[in-house]
Design brief:
The complex is a heterodimer.
Chain A (H helix, E strand, L loop, with lengths): L2 H11 L8 H13 L5 H13 L5 H14 L9 H4 L1 H39 L22
Helix pairs in contact in A: 2-3
Chain B lengths: L1 H16 L3 H23 L2 H18 L10 H25 L21 H15 L2 H11 L5 H8 L3 H30 L1
Classes of the chains: A mainly alpha, B mainly alpha.
Chain lengths: 146, 194
């Protein structure tokens, strides 16, 4: 809408934009919002309000709210609320870290035990039992006659 | 007029705190549409917004006794609860999307999107909606609280947990971005028609 068109419409329909025919209101508010007049912020806010308006069934809303109240379940989400809050996410991260550390220690301890027994066997000069572990080669000179 | 409405809201909340379901229905009739509009345009997802507004009124039912009229208006309290629920909802959706549980993108909030291209007036409104959806979250929230909730700067600051100065900045930036978007769209239309 140009300034000339806007002024023509204002003379014709009056100063109150809400009283203008519906197809002219949006362009008129857009013109007012864009043309830097004193009330341009107010015009833009009205324009946003008009554009944002969402139709909905108020009775259905009331029915659903009452049903939720009667069920006593304010939140149907599967995720507990604290899990999506920053503190919950941080707590979960710490729990995962602690669990991973403990699991790591357990695995490492088992591996250490196996290595310890191998080293002990080596030190004693004995062969390892055939329980799946790699056998230690016997001393090639062992048992040979001098 | 606004004060009368505010006093009416205070009375309704007092009745809700005393267990009056009729008062809750009246509060929903007064504020349901505004809260739904705010949530829908902030979240960009009509189903999530519906869920949020239901949660808000369930919370009001449970916590109406905690509302203190001395600390602010009832509408400010309602929008504060709604804004917090919207932020939670956004986080939940982001989390679900991150874990691949939910890959639904933003759903058009207005089902009449195709029909509205039919007339120039509706096109203008669609351009504003598009501009709104492109604004950064906090600018969008501030602008919606001002335009849809009709809250003043102090109330918006209370809702958003920000200073009045930063709310003013958010509004200035949001309005400027929206005007730029409208001007770009107008220039685009002129180029098409010439």
């Amino acid at each position: 809408m140009t300034r000339e068109e806007f002024e023509n419409n204002r003379r014709r329909f009056g100063d109150d934009i809400d009283a203008w025919p519906a197809p002219l209101r949006g362009p008129a508010l857009a013109f007012m919002a864009l043309n830097g007049d004193a009330d341009s912020d107010t015009a833009l806010d009205r324009f946003v309000r008009q554009a944002a308006l969402v139709e909905g069934d108020d009775r259905a809303l009331a029915r659903k709210v009452m049903a939720r109240i009667e069920r006593g379940a304010a939140r149907p989400s599967l995720l507990p609320r604290f899990l999506v809050a920053p503190a919950g996410i941080a707590a979960c991260a710490v729990a995962v870290l602690v669990a991973a550390t403990l699991a790591g220690y357990q695995v490492a301890r088992l591996q250490d035990q196996f290595q310890d027994s191998e080293l002990l066997a080596l030190a004693a000069g004995a062969k390892l039992p055939d329980d799946g572990g790699p056998a230690i080669a016997a001393d090639p000179g062992e048992g040979d006659a001098l | 007029m606004a004060d009368e409405a505010s006093r009416g809201d205070d009375e309704l909340l007092a009745r809700i705190a005393a267990g009056g379901q009729a008062a809750l229905s009246e509060l929903m009739a007064r504020h349901g549409r505004g809260l739904r509009t705010f949530a829908t345009r902030y979240l960009g997802h009509a189903a999530d917004a519906e869920d949020v507004v239901q949660e808000v009124f369930v919370t009001v039912w449970k916590q109406a006794a905690r509302f203190d009229p001395g600390r602010g208006r009832a509408s400010t309290w309602l929008y504060r609860i709604t804004a917090n629920r919207c932020i939670d909802q956004r986080r939940r959706r982001a989390l679900r999307t991150f874990f691949g549980l939910d890959d639904i993108g933003e759903e058009p909030a207005a089902p009449e999107a195709n029909a509205e291209t039919a007339t120039a007036a509706r096109q203008e409104l669609a351009i504003v909606r598009d501009g709104l959806s492109r604004l950064p979250e906090r600018q969008r929230m501030a602008l919606l609280l001002r335009a849809v909730g009709e809250l003043d700067i102090t109330a918006i600051a209370q809702v958003m947990g920000a200073s009045t100065g930063s709310v003013e900045q958010l509004l200035v930036r949001g309005r400027r971005a929206l005007r730029d978007h409208l001007a770009d769209a107008a220039r685009g239309r002129e180029r098409k028609s010439s």
